[in-house]
Task: structure prediction
Amino acid sequence: MKVGISATIHTTVDKGNTACTVGSGGLDVFATPAMSALMERADCEALTDMLEPGQTSVGANISVSHAAASPIGVNVAATATITAVDGRKIEFAVTACDGAGEIGNGTHTRFIVDAEKFMSKASTRK
Result:
């Protein structure tokens, strides 16, 4: 894990990722939860080649602002850049842009975990 590594993920705003559909508002624009999820996907992509077999990452904290609306049909790109590494804790700066400019930004924290151990622990929460 190295500071500065980044990845970008793209999506197109469609009916399935609008605020109206996901329940985060009443308008047919890119939903804040969809933007946050796209940012998380960019985090995961940045980590893909650095994980050992059996490892994955889990989100622990996200803080984002969503400052501009993106209508149906617009392409949105989310970029995640590693800003700090502290053992298993990875910090990211995240941004999202559409063709008109930045629509959101923030920070995200993920932890590297052993997938099997994590799921075993999670299953005890039933």
Remarks:
- Residues 7 and 46 are 5 Å apart (CA to CA).
- The longest helix spans residues 32-47.
